[in-house]
Amino acid sequence: MTTTEKLLTEAREIAFRASLDASEALIRDVFHRLCVEYDEREPVRRETYDGETLH
Length: 55
Known about the structure:
Blueprint: H1 3-18, H2 24-48
């Protein structure tokens, strides 16, 4: 499963916990926020593992 798929799955779960009748718009908004949070953490990962191979 790709990172995008994982974030979308998590967004759906969060949206349905917030509202049993979650709309696509709500899921999209939560997904967008999760993507922003992921992107904000990503540079830290690159600095930590720069030049290293992760397995």
